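Margin note from the TA: students keep mixing up input and output lines. Inputs are the sequences; the output is the structure of the whole complex. Example:
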Amino acid sequence: DTEVTQTPKHLVMGMTNKKSLKCEQHMGHRAMYWYKQKAKKPPELMFVYSYEKLSINESVPSRFSPECPNSSLLNLHLHALQPEDSALYLCASSQIETGVASYEQYFGPGTRLTVT
Amino acid sequence: EDQVTQSPEALRLQEGESSSLNCSYTVSGLRGLFWYRQDPGKGPEFLFTLYSAGEEKEKERLKATLTKKESFLHITAPKPEDSATYLCAALGRDYGGSQGNLIFGKGTKLSVKP
């Protein structure tokens, strides 16, 4: 099973709202990722968690706050977003092995976020 | 600077008309070259990983190959259901803890007409 699940599928929020995106995988992967994808563009990396610790933060504004409660779950907390943050938010996971070839990332279906 | 370039941006084929998609890369210390398929509004679906020049992998009508400078995704006798955007991504040198820094190309949008 190579399934990554994400909830909700769609989210509409105002600029003053607080909401959270959720991601779950049961493949035993110890690396999890958040990406942002705008229309007709490739995914852009936002955050990487390795062994439940934040290892990469690609200069993402503080209105996006990631959380990794355990090895299977990844959250993205949203607060005071701007209309330009509207996008498809993708979660992915992969195995980890340092020093040798790395492993493919498996993506979830995404959450379509609209900020009004 | 590490870079991945895909061509063409868009490709229209008739059903059964074989073709190839190109992915050129300049990546220091390539640790893997990945192909994904993405349907509109959905997450990328993993297709192949290639690790070293000369490597080839196949799945149904798709075959991926890798050289030291580029990768090709060959599509043999495509069907309308193969219509999608195909993304190429490279994983470069590990600068210490950067497990996941995939460098994506902009994708090739493939349309297969019946």
